[in-house]
């Protein structure tokens, strides 16, 4: 069983992430250097993340889109323990039909003291899928929650993904060490930890960028294969700095992807660096819009000077989708002005010897 490596993120509700656009979710995950995403697939006995009006499953298409970027999907399931056989059936049903790399059991307060239901649930699961990768996601400190059937869960799981949420504090490294120590010393069987950190806020508390870096640094120091964060839904909308901190972090064994030429172009836009933009084009490159065609370095520099200093002054550019392989790229973008106005477009570029030879733009 291969544990998740590098950085991951939990998704609760797919429609709340990038407006439900699966191509944008996949691109955003790729650009953040994520190697895996954990998507909710069931709640108790019911399937989760489907279109309530049509009944269409949303997880499968997203998993297939992420797979194009070599990003794995683990399905997570919130369980209650009142109907363990039916909850197992829900898990088996979803595992059987979805392209998942693994399955995560989210067992919390509702499962306290439910030892027999836990054994029933886990036995049903393992009888159906004896070798499928499975993990437990629950409290960070098992000694504080010793009525949860830890051993019954972990004996049938391959991994332990504790929720190391340092809420109302700023000592994630210390808390992660404490979590590992308790699981190592006091609970059997031990399973490798792939911890989940806090990328959300509440009651006036928010994680800091330094918290996030400390959490990941400590996980690396403790030789953990990876980490994940809760949750994409919250972080992308409300904590952009935290998202960027996670995205910028280079996991030692799973480094972030190199910038594509389109991404270098957008970065140069945001820096209003005309010379850096020009260097991405060949000397005789052609730039085409619906209104005109220009060619050559001088014309490109004049065009971008006008565009970035006048037409799109102080706008922040972002690629929203990227596809294609050499020699062609297709990308959509958004430009957000300081007053909140957003413009968008779709561009195509041709590449030769790592430089742009033609660029059709809707700018």
TrEMBL record:
Could you name the domain of life of the organism this protein comes from?
Bacteria
* Cleavable signal peptide: none
Q: Which residues form the SnoaL-like domain?
A: 264-359
SUPFAM superfamilies recorded: (Trans)glycosidases, NTF2-like
- Protein known as: SnoaL-like protein
Organism whose genome encodes this protein:
Pelolinea submarina
């Amino acid at each position: 069983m291969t544990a998740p490596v590098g950085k991951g993120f939990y998704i609760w509700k797919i429609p709340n992430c990038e407006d439900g656009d699966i191509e944008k979710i996949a691109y955003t995950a790729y650009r953040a250097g994520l190697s895996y995403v954990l998507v909710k697939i069931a709640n108790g006995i019911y399937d989760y993340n489907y279109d309530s009006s049509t009944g269409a499953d949303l997880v499968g298409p997203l998993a297939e889109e992420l797979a194009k970027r070599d990003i794995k999907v683990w399905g997570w399931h919130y369980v209650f323990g009142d109907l363990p056989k039916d909850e197992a059936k829900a898990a088996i049903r979803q595992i059987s039909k979805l392209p998942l790399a693994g399955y995560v059991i989210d067992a919390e307060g509702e499962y306290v003291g439910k030892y027999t239901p836990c054994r029933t649930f886990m036995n049903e699961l393992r009888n159906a899928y004896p070798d499928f990768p499975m993990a437990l996601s629950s409290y960070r400190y098992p000694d504080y929650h010793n009525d949860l059937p830890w051993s019954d869960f972990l004996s049938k799981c391959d991994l332990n993904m504790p929720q190391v949420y340092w809420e109302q504090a700023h000592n994630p490294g210390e808390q992660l060490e404490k979590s590992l120590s308790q699981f190592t010393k006091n609970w059997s069987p031990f399973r490798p930890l792939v911890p989940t950190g806090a990328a959300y806020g509440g009651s006036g508390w928010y994680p800091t960028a330094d918290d996030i870096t400390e959490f990941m640094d400590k996980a690396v120091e403790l030789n953990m294969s990876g980490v994940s964060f809760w949750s994409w839904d919250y972080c992308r909308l409300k904590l952009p700095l935290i998202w960027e901190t996670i995205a910028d972090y280079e996991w030692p064994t799973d480094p972030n992807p190199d910038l594509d030429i389109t991404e270098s172009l957008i970065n140069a836009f945001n820096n209003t660096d005309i010379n850096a933009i020009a260097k991405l084009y060949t000397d005789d490159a052609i730039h085409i819009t619906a209104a005109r065609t220009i060619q050559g370095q001088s014309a490109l520099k004049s065009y971008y000077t006008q565009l970035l200093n006048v037409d799109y002054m102080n706008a922040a550019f972002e690629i929203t989708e990227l596809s294609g392989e050499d020699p062609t790229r297709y990308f959509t973008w958004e430009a957000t002005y300081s007053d909140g106005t957003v413009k968008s477009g779709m561009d195509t570029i041709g590449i030769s010897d790592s430089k742009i030879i033609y660029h059709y733009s809707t700018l």
